[in-house]
């Protein structure tokens, strides 16, 4: 579409009015220039009746650039204001007889003038013209006026333009002249609705503006168009579904529904989608009627302006809808810790930013008012208050021409520029950044002390692993452990098992729970007996899994012997299956499937308790080590004090006293080093020393097969707890 707009604009906007002059449409300045443009570049651009070798085209139609068909005929329309619409001072009434005010609907002239025949000389209202208002650079103009439909041939159109020029169709009351036409390019299936506007301000001279609107008004021609039609139908169904869903939620939650910003955003997206669908239906139905009318009378003016307007509005609504849909992604990316920090920072600093914005805009608008009053009559960028606001934003971004300000006012210009940059850029802008940085630091500090929550990446990874397990494309935890045992041979130590299972995606907590359960002697190595016990349990677990998959209506993901990351999803599946079976069962007892679910949950609880016991054991070991160190320090200090007291009592020589002290200190240091070495060896072997110096065995995991349980001792782990 961009290239279509560019070639059309270059043809009508950048072509000089004559070979001797460089004036083009953009630089028109007088009414004489306007007539030169209509008699030169306009006619040359609209009517392509000759090939580049001066041969006449076979068809009696105008194809601009030999590709773009001119639809119907062009139209020239003007709006006027009546004489006497403004007040003349009493002192100048003798010198000034006529007065034409700026354009407004109240000042619009509707009386016939000139030849007083035909539509060019008599007024036609907006309804009869099927027109609409237009927002120009100086004023907003109605869709009515005096108009002349041109011809399909260059010669007749040249005669019509010459007649209008000769009879002074443009006069002092003219405030706007419109040139409208439409073309169609079949190669790309696009219309281009063109409007060239020349405004004649009350000050004299003229101002030009233009609109080139490439729009696709004919749909569903190619295969891809029908694919888009299917997508549009799917979109309509989705909008209908979510509309019903939101209505039901509003009915259930009443006004509480609107307390959530995301719910309000959902309502806005649905409303915009419904409006876009309505505009699309109206546009499609209307263009068919307009083309049918055009084919019946090819010498009429096809008014595609309303359709182009609605197409532009459709594009705008679609763009805003897509924007809000992208914004809604923040609701889902909050699973990510970084994005959560961003959204939390923005929500926390809202009040501070609003308070800062009030102060900012007070100073900003004060400078805008100053610039408008001082430079408004000299510089185009400050000609209106609105332009002053945008120009000051450009100054903040560094896009500004200081020379124009200095030339407009050599005193106030530099003062205005210097103080504005100082206060707005160096002070207020840095205050805004300080607010954001301070809030971000607080949020980051708070989140650092919070427990890590499930992130989106974790959720996706867990869902992927669960799907792979159900499709039997990935091994379960039971299979991974069995394979590690087969590779270990007769014995398997903790480091080998950890390295193997870590490579298969298991966590340290899972691996430690497995080893804690079966390493009953605490030597950090599985013996043949412990090895065989683990094999038997794993075979039993595999049989349970096969039974679950075959018996349950909903297949469960693989159940690992220790609690793994997959267990959380399995809980949900088991809960749903369990509840459905309980609802469907008519017996009063517990079914085998329910019993298996409960057994697995009890087993997982035992694993968790075993992990807790081992951690408590480690804490107790550290406390015992601290107590031993404290007792050693007391013993050493007591011996040293006893030695000093004994020397003083016996009156020994200082040299002998010093040697005695050195010997005692050396003996204590050697004893400390030997104790530390033994403690480190014990820690590496997993057999910490107790208070009595005897090795402490690692607490075994309490299981359902142990009769005394946790409170009854459960092995050494239970004894440690009661210590």
Automatic annotation (TrEMBL):
Residue positions binding Ca(2+): 519, 521, 523, 525, 530
Biased composition (Gly residues): 710-723
S-S bonds: 86-99
Biased composition (Low complexity): 552-563, 694-709
Pfam family, one: PKD_channel
Composition bias type Basic and acidic residues, residue spans: 526-551
Domain EF-hand: 506-541
UniProt keyword Iron present: no
InterPro entries linked: EF-hand-dom_pair, EF_hand_dom, PKD1_2_channel, PKD_2, Polycystin, Polycystin_dom, Volt_channel_dom_sf
Major location category of this protein: membrane
Compartment(s): Basolateral cell membrane; Cell projection, Cilium membrane; Cytoplasmic vesicle membrane; Endoplasmic reticulum membrane
Membrane topology reported for the UniProt record: Multi-pass membrane protein
Entry's transmembrane regions: 176-198, 218-243, 264-282, 312-333, 353-375, 415-436
GO CC terms in record: basolateral plasma membrane; ciliary membrane; cytoplasmic vesicle membrane; endoplasmic reticulum membrane; monoatomic ion channel complex
One MF term in the entry's GO annotations: signaling receptor binding
Positions of region (Disordered): 520-590, 671-723
GO BP, sorted A to Z: detection of mechanical stimulus; determination of left/right symmetry; release of sequestered calcium ion into cytosol
Keywords tagged on the record: Calcium, Calcium channel, Calcium transport, Cell membrane, Cell projection, Coiled coil, Cytoplasmic vesicle, Disulfide bond, Endoplasmic reticulum, Glycoprotein, Ion channel, Ion transport, Membrane, Metal-binding, Phosphoprotein, Potassium, Potassium channel, Potassium transport, Transmembrane, Transmembrane helix, Transport, Voltage-gated channel
Family, as annotated: Belongs to the polycystin family.
Protein name: Polycystin-2
């Amino acid at each position: 579409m961009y290239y279509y707009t560019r070639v059309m604009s270059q043809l009508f906007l950048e072509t000089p009015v004559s070979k001797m002059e460089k004036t083009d449409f953009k630089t028109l300045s007088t009414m004489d220039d306007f007539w030169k443009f209509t008699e030169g570049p306009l006619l040359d651009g609209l009517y392509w009746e000759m090939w580049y070798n001066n041969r006449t085209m076979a068809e009696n139609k105008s194809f601009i650039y030999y590709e773009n068909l001119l639809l119907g005929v062009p139209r020239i329309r003007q709006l006027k204001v009546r004489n006497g619409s403004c007040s003349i001072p009493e002192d100048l009434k003798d010198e000034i007889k006529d007065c034409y005010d700026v354009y407004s609907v109240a000042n619009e002239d509707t009386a016939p003038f000139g030849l007083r025949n035909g539509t060019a000389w008599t007024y036609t209202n907006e309804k009869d013209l099927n027109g609409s208002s237009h927002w120009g650079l100086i004023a907003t103009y109605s869709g009515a006026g005096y108009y002349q439909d041109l011809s399909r041939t260059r010669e007749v159109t040249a005669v019509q333009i010459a007649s209008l020029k000769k009879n002074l169709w443009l006069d002092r009351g003219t405030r706007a002249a419109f040139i409208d036409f439409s073309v169609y390019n079949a190669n790309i299936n696009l219309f281009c609705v063109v409007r060239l506007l020349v405004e004649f301000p009350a000050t004299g001279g003229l101002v030009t503006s233009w609109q080139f609107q490439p729009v696709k008004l004919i749909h569903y021609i190619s295969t891809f168009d029908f694919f888009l039609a299917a997508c549009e139908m799917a979109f309509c169904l989705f909008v209908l579904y979510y509309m019903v869903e939101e209505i039901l939620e509003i009915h259930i939650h009443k006004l509480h529904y609107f307390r959530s910003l995301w719910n309000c955003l959902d309502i806005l997206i649905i409303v915009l989608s419904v409006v876009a669908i309505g505009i699309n239906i109206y546009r499609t139905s209307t263009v068919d009627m307009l083309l049918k009318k055009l084919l019946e009378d090819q010498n009429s003016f096809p008014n595609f302006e309303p359709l182009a307007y609605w197409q532009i509005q459709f594009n705008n609504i679609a763009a805003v809808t897509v924007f809000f849909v992208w914004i809604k992604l923040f609701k889902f990316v909050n699973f990510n810790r970084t994005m959560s920090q961003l959204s939390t920072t923005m929500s926390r600093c809202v009040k501070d930013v609003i308070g800062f914005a009030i102060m900012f805009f007070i100073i900003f608008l004060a400078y805008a008012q100053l610039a408008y009053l001082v430079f408004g009559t000299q510089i185009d960028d400050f000609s209106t208050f609105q332009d002053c606001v945008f120009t000051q934003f450009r100054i903040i971004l560094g896009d500004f021409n200081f020379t124009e300000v200095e030339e407009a006012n050599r005193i106030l210009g530099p003062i205005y520029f210097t103080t504005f940059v100082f206060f707005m850029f160096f002070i207020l802008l840095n205050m805004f950044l300080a607010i954001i940085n301070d809030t971000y630091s607080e949020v980051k500090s708070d989140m650092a002390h919070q427990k890590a929550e499930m992130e989106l990446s974790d959720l996706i990874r867990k869902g992927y692993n669960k799907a792979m397990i159900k499709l039997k494309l990935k091994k379960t935890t039971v299979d991974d452990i069995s394979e590690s045992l087969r590779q270990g041979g007769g014995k398997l130590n903790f480091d080998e098992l950890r390295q193997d299972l870590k490579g298969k995606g298991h966590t340290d907590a899972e691996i430690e729970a497995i080893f804690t359960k079966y390493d009953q002697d605490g030597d950090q190595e599985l013996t043949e007996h412990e090895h065989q016990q683990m094999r038997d349990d794993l075979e039993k677990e595999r049989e349970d899994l096969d039974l679950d998959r075959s018996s349950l209506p909903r297949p469960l993901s693989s159940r690992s012997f220790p609690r793994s990351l997959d267990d959380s999803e399995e809980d949900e599946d088991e809960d749903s299956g369990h509840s459905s079976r309980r609802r469907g069962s008519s017996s009063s007892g517990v079914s085998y499937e329910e019993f298996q679910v409960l057994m697995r949950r009890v087993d997982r609880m035992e694993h968790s308790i075993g992990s807790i016991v081992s951690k408590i054991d480690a804490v107790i070991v550290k406390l015992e080590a601290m107590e031993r160190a404290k007792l050693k320090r007391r013993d050493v200090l007591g011996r040293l004090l006893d030695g000093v007291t004994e020397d003083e009592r016996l009156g020994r020589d200082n040299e002998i006293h010093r040697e005695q002290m050195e010997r005692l200190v050396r003996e204590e240091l050697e004893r400390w080093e030997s104790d530390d070495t033994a403690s480190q060896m014990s820690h590496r072997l997993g057999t910490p020393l107790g208070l009595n110096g005897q090795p402490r065995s690692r607490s075994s995991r309490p299981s359902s097969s142990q009769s005394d349980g946790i409170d009854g001792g459960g092995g050494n782990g239970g004894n440690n707890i009661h210590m």
